[in-house]
Amino acid sequence: MGTIWIPPNKLVTFFEEKVGYKSGLALTREEMVKHIAESNSITEALITQSDEPIRVRADAIEDAFQILLYKLGFLKQPFVGHGPTILDLKYRTDATKHQLFEKVLFQLGSYHFDKGKHALSDGFNKVEFYKIIQTSLPSDAMEIATELIDLIELSELASPWDWHPARQVDWQNTLALLDLFESESLDTMYGTFFDQRFIDYLSSNFESLGEIHWRKFEALTAEFFLRNGFDVDIGPGRNDGGIDIRIWKNRLTEADPPTILVQCKRQKQKVGKVIVKALWADILDESAHSGLIVTSSALSPGADTIRRARSYPINVADRETLRKWLIQLRSPGNSVFLGW
Q1: I need a surface site. Which of 112, 169, 204, 303 has the fewest CB within 10 A?
Q2: Nearest-CA neighbor of 200 among 35, 20, 63, 23?
Q3: Where is 63: in which H helix or E strand?
Q4: Which positions ≥6 away from 136 have C-beta within 8 Å?
């Protein structure tokens, strides 16, 4: 693809716009540099505060862009290759399949790309194309055709260029990644309490869980239970009497006592005995069925000993449980894992 002459400041704007368009997340210059540290040439360009054009390889821009999408949780691999090239190499040692691959590629060109189309997102009819493959080529060609289309679609999703405008979601707004760490707001467009884009980010950056805003930590917990069929009431965040979230299963009336009282602790140190005892007192006071401590750390040995020795109906969702929650909630995650 060659090289591009572009001022560093304009390159930053280019990444801001393209990452926001594809992922729905807005990144600062510093956040971009942090997440694509592996791509040294682009990192150096982004750090430079200048309006003077510099020479940048186009493939380096592509690589850095795909690293960003991977780090943000929107790609499952850091690099996405060229679909036809990948399959050409895959089937090169099998003459029969390689011949079929070339015929599928020819049909794809005749049907779509030879008509001046630059991307599958430009009016490609997948069902119609597969019918052509099914009726014109041996049955083994269908597997190759679906594999080829999947790879091309993935490469278009991972492309920063204007001629590949495909994206998984037509985002109605762009969400600042910084809000995950600094904002107390629970307003979200792609979720009820916690935005799906933040879920995808944390599933790929789990080490950042303990750094998110404490209110977002509560929101993540509320979002998990809501998506698993519970009625959820998240508290005001401040002056909540020690109860962050109330949860009901099969709630019939407003007067029903909570099924679970939740205390959220986003902290590095382990949760101590005082929290366990206070939650037990709240369970008794509200006639709740049980309690749950959600923590980015774990219970201290002393707290866990008291909980078990006194048979308190208190469960713990620790750091590893939260990792499993994020795996379930990640797009398009659909398995259920409550963690106890």
Answers
A1: 169
A2: 23
A3: helix 58-71
A4: 107
Locus of tokens 């995808």:
200
Tokens of 223: 């979002």
**What span, in angstroms and rounded, lies between the C-alpha atoms of 158 and 21?**
11
Q: For residue range 172-215, list pLDDT tens digits in order.
A: 999 999 999 999 999 999 999 999 999 999 999 999 999 999 99
Mean pLDDT computed over 54-78: 93
- Distances from the Cα of 129 to the Cα of 33, 82, 109, 110, 134, angstroms: 41, 20, 11, 10, 9
- E strands of the chain, at which residues? 3-6, 25-26, 54-57, 175-176, 231-234, 245-248, 260-265, 290-295, 314-317
| Distance of alpha carbon 200 from alpha carbon 215, whole angstroms | 18
Residue with tokens 């799906």: 196
145 Cβ neighbours under 8 A, 6+ residues apart: 104, 107, 108, 129, 130, 133
- The DSSP call for residue 299 is B
Task: Give residue 99's pLDDT band: very low, low, confident or very high (50, 70, 90).
Answer: very high
Percentage above 90 pLDDT, the chain = 87
Residue 28's nearest CA partner among 46, 55, 50 is 46
**Cα–chain center distance at 154:** 16
Residues whose CB is less than 8 angstroms from the CB of residue 150 and which lie 6 or more positions away in sequence, other chains included: 83
Q: What is the mean pLDDT of residues 287-316?
A: 97
Give the DSSP letter of residue 140. T
Of residues 169, 147, 170, 166, the one with CA closest to residue 157 = 166
* pLDDT average, residue stretch 77-102: 94
18: amino acid identity, one letter = K
Distances (CA, A) of 199 to 66, 237, 310: 19, 20, 36
